[in-house]
Write a structure and sequence with these properties.
Number of domains: 2
Structural class: alpha+beta
Radius of gyration: 38 Å
Strand order of the largest sheet: 2-3-1-4
Largest sheet: 4 strands, antiparallel
Number of strands: 4
Order of helices and strands: HHHEHEHHEHEHHHH
Distance between the termini: 68 Å
Strand content: 5-15%
Shape: elongated
């Protein structure tokens, strides 16, 4: 009886439950450790695939160098034009304050009336400031600057009118708003003529806006060209490794596992092209720095060529890598599905 009681299910039930709890706890620890191991293995595999893809590219340096050169030239064209426009904007940044409208008053307008008109115009929200020049001041300035001082002294009366120099606000000054202000000033009854002295500056800004949109369109077209170049290169790489891909799929390799090396190859192509474009742009700027310095020195200007800053360089590399990744993704998605074991 004692032997029977010792093996009784009721007596062994606590032992069984305790052993089960131990097994469940041990299994939970195995799941948590397994998940961590899988994450580490995932990133380790990505790191290994990235370096393996790069080493494989270095085995054919001449072919890949030609591909990188084509990508670099395609990227350098729109980015170089962008840098050129940035330098033009830097050069013309001080021209906004030089935009002014000269309002010539009629000769029969008295000085008091001219000063009153200048005060009224200064209250307009689209005008930043006013400078009134009387006819007497204009005559004195003309005598000093023209060299005809003695000849002007023989005139019976002053032929020069009073002038109101109007400086439009530069924060919202465009060709349309300034032209509207010019027309408004011209219609005043006291005004004989109103003209914009630096209208060509506003026209230059219009040309620059057109150039910016042209650079954007060119950048989109050349980005498409980069996608085609990388896509065609990845397609050739897939065809060259067809047998290897078939073997990997036969042993259970997933499409994501097979796709990964080609995606990293596309990223390396994009980064190499971006680095090449950066070198091309800075080499051209270095080549042009001396002639530009000589030219601006002749005009006593402090202008100097500026290249890509840190943020622009990072954006160039990131955009190039994304172009490479996207081009490789398109090529792999199209051609990899056609390779299946038979």
């Amino acid at each position: 009886m004692r032997q029977k009681d010792r093996h009784s299910p009721k007596r062994n039930k606590p032992l069984v439950q305790s052993e089960r709890r131990k097994n469940e706890a041990h299994g939970a620890r195995q799941v948590s450790i397994g998940l961590l191991d899988r994450i580490k293995s995932y990133f380790a595999n990505h790191r290994e695939v990235a370096f393996t893809s790069f080493r494989r590219m270095l085995k054919a340096p001449l072919v890949n160098l030609m591909t990188w050169s084509v990508i670099a030239i395609a990227i350098a064209l729109p980015v170089g034009l962008f840098v050129f426009l940035q330098n033009i904007q830097q050069l013309s940044s001080g021209w906004d304050n030089a935009v002014q409208i000269s309002v010539y008053l009629k000769t029969d307008v008295s000085q008091a009336r001219g000063q009153a008109l200048a005060g009224q115009l200064e209250q307009k929200p689209e005008i930043e400031r006013i400078h009134y020049i009387s006819s007497e001041q204009a005559l004195v300035e003309f005598q000093q600057l023209s060299g005809f001082g003695e000849a002007l002294s023989y005139l019976d009366e002053n032929p020069l009118p009073a002038v109101i120099v109007v400086y439009p606000r530069t924060d919202d000054s465009t060709l349309l708003t300034t032209s509207t202000l010019l027309s408004t000033l011209q219609e005043l009854p006291e005004v004989e003529q109103a003209q914009m002295d630096l209208e060509w500056v506003q026209r230059l800004y219009g040309i620059m806006q057109l150039a910016q949109r042209s650079v954007l369109a060119l950048g989109l077209l050349l980005s498409l060209a980069v996608l085609l170049v990388i896509g065609n290169t990845i397609r050739l790489a897939i065809e060259a490794r067809r047998e290897e891909i078939v073997v990997v799929k036969l042993v259970g390799g997933t499409d994501a596992f097979v796709r990964r090396p080609f995606l990293y190859t596309g990223i390396w192509y994009g980064l190499g092209g971006g680095l090449g474009a950066w070198l091309i742009i800075n080499s051209i700027l270095l080549w042009l720095s001396d002639p530009v310095s000589s030219l601006v020195g002749a005009y006593s200007s402090q202008f100097s060529l500026s290249g890509l800053g840190l943020f622009e360089t990072l954006m160039l590399m990131l955009s190039s890598a994304m172009l490479g990744l996207f081009g490789a993704w398109l090529a792999v998605g199209r051609h990899l599905s056609k390779i299946e074991p038979r």
